[in-house]
Amino acid sequence: MEDVGARRSLETELARMAYSDPLTGLANRRALLQSLEDGVAAEEHQTALLLLDLDGFKNVNDTRGHDFGDELLVEVSRRIKELLRPTDVGARLGGDEFAILLRASWSEAVATAKALVARLGEPYEFHDESTVFVTGSVGIATAAEGLGDPELLLRNADLALRAAKQAGKNRYATYDAEFDRRVRRKNELSQELRGAIGRDELRLVYQPVFDVTDRTIVGAEALLRWNHPRLGQVSPGEFIPAATESGLTQDLAVWTVNRAAEQLAAWQNGGIKAWISVNVSVKELHTHLFATEVNTALIAAGVPAKRLVLEVTEHDFSHQMNTLIAQLGALRGAGVRIALDDFGSGYSSLGQLERLPVDIIKIDRDLIAKDDGGVGPLAAVTVALGRILGMEVIAEGVETDLQLNAMIAAQAPLVQGYLLAKPMDPDDLTRWLTEEPKALASEAHPVPRPRDTPNDVPGSEKS
Ligand code: C2E
Ligand code: CA
Ligand code: CA
């Protein structure tokens, strides 16, 4: 008899262990999923799922040790339990991730999330009398969007949690179908982009840069275009961020530099001396690998390094300045020129600008142009600044005669923009480069104008 009793209690104990988190005594992932399924089976429409993640928990764990981390997690679970009503299920899903299944209306779920964020943000006192400040982020999804599928409910709550983190942490966010769509799109682009080079879906178009003093094309910016068989034309404004998030920019940059070098070789054979600039994100410059790739590409194509310009963006300069300066210095040492892209749209101070090994600054369109076709108030000053610093200056995004004339008056010799030429296929540009000097001389306009619209990706540039 006693045996049976002992076995029963052992069984109960084992069952409890299988469904609970040993550290906090909350339900575990398996138990939560079970409760979600039960809720679905019972067609409980008033179901909301809160997912909670501590902000910067790893920090506490790393600096104070795991025992300390555990103590913090236990206290967090205590605060969660305070908020639970008898019908709710609190769970720890692993690490510092928790969940609460609420049998509650939408507004009650939001109120609970609010209370939770507030409670989690209160200071934590520890046994050694130290105090730690930690906050939490919460994502909310309701059965309305995820009914019938516990996994979907979890996923939606997880997306909401991501949105809360992205919005700055220490807050809650509710599931948002639009955010969901953007995340799906980004994932899809990253996925598809992985094979794009191999499937030959990428190409470069070139937008010429003009010297307005002698009316010649001095160089061209290489711009990526992606034509996916199902997704159609995807603009770089959309796929470059996706590539950056999934670590694909290095492959893209190497591919682009090699195509540009080949184009330079073709021009060189035809006696054309224009340079090509390629956009690179600063990520590439954190190792010396990229500099090696660049040199290899130039040697393979047999073109002098001075024909290649690398455009880097000011926004990226906030981190690891010293590594960056070293890598840019190495590339420059090899003869490649560096352009600071989107100048005036970022945060770098003038002091920083002096330290950067840069040859050219490209003044951002936002400084040059106003939406009504007018000239930005700081355009001329910025051009002068570039000159004082001893750099070449390219004025970007010139769309109207007014803007062009202002740049000429400001003595900005180099201009790029839709007024003069849109990005175009390399063959069209080559034709333009070979015909250009004669064709231009007769034009009344101070700089060359395209006779017909160069073909470019529809939709990616406004016409
Ligand atoms: P960005 O480097 O500032 O490139 C200039 C963008 O402005 C290009 O758009 C160009 O078509 C557009 N543009 C040129 N003239 C005008 C004008 O007069 N008015 C207006 N409104 N726009 C003008 P695109 O080709 O869509 O490229 C967008 C951005 O995508 C680029 O901005 C660059 O940041 C990125 N990107 C493009 N190709 C590459 C690439 O090969 N690698 C990397 N890392 N980024 C790239
Ligand atoms: Ca650029
Ligand atoms: Ca730019």
TrEMBL record:
<dbReference type="InterPro" id="IPR000160">
    <property type="entry name" value="GGDEF_dom"/>
</dbReference>
<dbReference type="Pfam" id="PF00563">
    <property type="entry name" value="EAL"/>
</dbReference>
<dbReference type="Pfam" id="PF00990">
    <property type="entry name" value="GGDEF"/>
</dbReference>
<dbReference type="InterPro" id="IPR043128">
    <property type="entry name" value="Rev_trsase/Diguanyl_cyclase"/>
</dbReference>
<feature type="region of interest" description="Disordered">
    <location>
        <begin position="437"/>
        <end position="463"/>
    </location>
</feature>
<feature type="compositionally biased region" description="Basic and acidic residues">
    <location>
        <begin position="449"/>
        <end position="463"/>
    </location>
</feature>
<feature type="domain" description="GGDEF">
    <location>
        <begin position="45"/>
        <end position="177"/>
    </location>
</feature>
<dbReference type="InterPro" id="IPR035919">
    <property type="entry name" value="EAL_sf"/>
</dbReference>
<dbReference type="InterPro" id="IPR029787">
    <property type="entry name" value="Nucleotide_cyclase"/>
</dbReference>
<feature type="domain" description="EAL">
    <location>
        <begin position="186"/>
        <end position="437"/>
    </location>
</feature>
<dbReference type="InterPro" id="IPR052155">
    <property type="entry name" value="Biofilm_reg_signaling"/>
</dbReference>
<protein>
    <submittedName>
        <fullName>EAL domain-containing protein</fullName>
    </submittedName>
</protein>
<dbReference type="InterPro" id="IPR001633">
    <property type="entry name" value="EAL_dom"/>
</dbReference>
